[in-house]
Amino acid sequence: xxxxxxxxxxxxxxxxxxxxxxxxxxxxxxxxxxxxxxxxxxxxxxxxxxxxxxxxxxxxxxxx
Length: 64
Description:
The chain has helices at 2-13, 19-43, 45-61. It is mainly alpha-helical. Residues 1-22 are annotated as: Disordered.
């Protein structure tokens, strides 16, 4: 039970981030993710093509 109190104290000492900071971090994460995806597609073109075809099939069979 003593550990639960320690966790609560640690959480209260962390500053609360603003919405702008959260959006900035999220935008940076999404940019990094897109960059990693592009790099992977360049390095593994066959796998990227298969992924594109799977995505296209999924979109064709999706019911709106």
